[in-house]
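Structure in, sequence out. Go:
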């Protein structure tokens, strides 16, 4: 393994990102993940088709049904608190209030830190030499900084043709968040859209106005010059996920400190202080230029899953909180991985069996063909990869009052939502990575041994968990931190 005594030694390492990953995680070629991709079929996704918007909700169900579900959801939430239901009683509400509070950080917008008074000074402004390193050295330097700032998983991509013309989205969801779909009026006016466009400019910028529904419209401009994508994921508490139903069972958004706002600000100032480079991007999962799971898969942090919305890391399964940034700081792309995770999903249907809305496919094999939903095209899925296609409109409806308020059952039941001391320890994970012969057996073992949600959310309070509820030594290669 690697031990780095200082930054200079880190620079001399041959690894682009010196993360210590399990021995059974293998690299693949760029743009060749374990879930097959047809680049001729793949097109930029239009987020007016994003499943969490009102437009999509009312496309697949009547306005009356959606509005009634919203009323039901509020009643469910109120009843849980009034009855002091375990998982929603006073101590959980207090815990939520604590992590939901704002943390002080300079205001951020798509182009970066809003107030120039909060910008770090460049070497030129300080009378210092600019950092001068190769893309490999840059990659390792940024990796070390991001780990220090709180990132768990870090990957890079060169923003070339496939990213600009196939992978980056066309729009944010702003135009359709509150838009009601009807056959006569299915789409909001283009003037309501907030679009991602390319221009021959040196720096990113935004032109924003209010659309007809009061949300942001206009454009975010991505410079046409050479850029690199930074994919980052912070930790999430898988034990919180297993307390469902509870206020903290949505671990990927309720973790006490995902650190994204601080990471964006620190990355911006780090590359600026190195030599006047720029790091920018929205960072929201419905407003970013990237699909976060696709970015994690293509930069070698994760593999696709049967669930089809989250992706799986070898170390934490679906329990991570991703975002992306863009930069003109030259980096080296990191390659997709093969840890046998997506192959395991072919045999394991635990998430699909557990899904209360039956929104996860039970198919034996992934498919290029996106199936309809009740005779309507599944527009919230983007063709171009071979996958198990989820009914995200059905999922969203169920979790917003159509069945209950909140869900997260698939995360809690995923076979890979177990810590490294549990059933899927490294020996078994290593077997999964090399052969599919025992996949069905390993999947059934997780049921036999009762892994999954806890019988009561109350057990969480008596656990002695790491700081922030997750293992921050994941990826560490130095001395005693390496596992």
């Amino acid at each position: 393994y690697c031990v780095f005594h200082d930054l200079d030694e880190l620079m001399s390492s041959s690894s682009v990102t010196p993360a210590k990953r399990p021995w059974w995680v293998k690299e693949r070629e760029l743009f060749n993940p374990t879930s097959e991709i047809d680049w001729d079929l793949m097109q930029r996704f239009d987020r007016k088709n994003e499943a969490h918007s009102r437009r999509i909700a009312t496309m697949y169900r009547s306005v009356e049904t959606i509005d009634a579900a919203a009323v039901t959801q509020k009643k469910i939430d109120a009843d849980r608190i009034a009855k002091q239901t375990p998982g929603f009683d006073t101590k959980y509400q207090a815990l939520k209030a604590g992590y939901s509070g704002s943390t002080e950080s300079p205001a951020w917008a798509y182009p970066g830190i809003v107030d120039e008074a909060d910008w770090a000074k460049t070497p030129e402004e300080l009378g210092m030499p600019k950092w001068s390193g190769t893309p490999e050295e840059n990659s390792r330097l940024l990796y070390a900084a991001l780990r220090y700032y709180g990132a768990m998983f870090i990957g890079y991509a060169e923003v070339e043709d496939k990213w600009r013309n196939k992978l980056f989205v066309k729009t944010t969801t702003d135009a359709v968040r509150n838009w009601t779909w009807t056959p006569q009026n299915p789409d909001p006016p283009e003037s309501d859209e907030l679009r991602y466009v390319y221009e021959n400019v040196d720096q990113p910028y935004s032109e924003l106005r209010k659309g007809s529904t009061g949300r942001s419209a206009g454009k975010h401009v991505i410079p046409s010059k050479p850029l690199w994508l930074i994919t980052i994921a912070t930790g999430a508490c898988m034990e919180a996920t297993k307390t469902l139903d509870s206020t903290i069972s949505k671990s990927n958004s309720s973790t006490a400190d995902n650190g994204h706002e601080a990471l964006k600000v620190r990355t911006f100032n780090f590359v600026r202080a190195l030599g006047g480079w720029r790091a920018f991007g929205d960072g929201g999962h419905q407003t970013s230029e990237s699909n976060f799971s696709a970015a994690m898969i293509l930069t070698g942090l994760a593999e696709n899953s049967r669930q089809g919305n989250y992706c799986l890391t070898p170390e934490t399964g679906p329990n991570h909180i991703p975002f992306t940034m863009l930069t003109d700081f030259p980096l080296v792309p990191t390659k997709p991985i093969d840890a046998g995770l997506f192959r395991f999903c072919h045999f394991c249907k635990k998430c699909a069996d557990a899904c209360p809305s039956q929104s996860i496919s039970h198919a034996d094999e992934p498919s290029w063909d996106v199936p309809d939903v009740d005779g309507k095209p599944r527009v919230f899925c983007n063709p171009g990869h071979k996958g198990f296609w989820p009914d995200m409109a059905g999922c969203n409806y169920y979790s917003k009052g159509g069945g209950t308020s909140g869900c997260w059952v698939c995360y809690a039941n995923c076979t890979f939502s177990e810590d490294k001391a549990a059933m899927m320890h490294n020996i078994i994970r290593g077997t999964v990575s090399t052969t599919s012969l025992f996949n069905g057996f390993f999947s059934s073992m997780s049921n036999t041994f009762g892994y999954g949600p806890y019988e009561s959310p109350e057990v969480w309070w008596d656990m002695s968990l790491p700081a922030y509820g997750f293992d921050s030594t994941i990826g560490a290669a130095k001395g005693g931190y390496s596992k």
